[in-house]
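Revision sheet: structure tokens.
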Amino acid sequence: MAHHHDHDDHPHGTHPASELSPMELRVRALESILVEKGYVDPAALDALIETYETRVGPHNGARVVARAWVDPGFRARLLADATPAMHELGVGGRGGEHMVVVANTPEEHNLVVCTLCSCYPWPVLGLPPVWYKSPPYRSRAVIAPRAVLAEFGLTLPAAQRIRVWDSTAELRYMVLPMRPAGTEELDEPALAALVTRDSMIGTGLPLTAERIA
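Predicted:
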């Protein structure tokens, strides 16, 4: 069952990235201990991180979005049942088995959060950004989504409703952003280059064609 929350304007608050350094320090310490005790090969760890940051990263999700922008049939299948639609492009796997894709429209903007922990579709979007796992983001995205988006530099029209989707271990969400204007002549790879990780979480928008010209 889909979990979502509808919100409108809320007061401004602190930036969700303000409490991240202790978490990063703990991760680094754990990494060092695992390597020192011989539980993890540093080269294997580097290869795993490189895979998710660069080769998987948000590139898989961007390919899915670009295909949905150019192929109405694929878009319909993606919104109806995202997991098998993504498999058509070879996208998915552990951590991305049960996907739901929600589409932004001029009337509604979607935002993804995981309030219980930090469930995130790694095979589709790569490593989660550190702010996604932070308690301030996880709580305030639900309570004050418009203020949180403003802190990311995204100010939406007052008439555009914000819907917040709460990911779980069983069900993970991805946003299908709206295709930027003026991109009619771009091919699929060029369109994919416009799709940012944040636009697929809902904390940002795709790049405009001018930004990569």
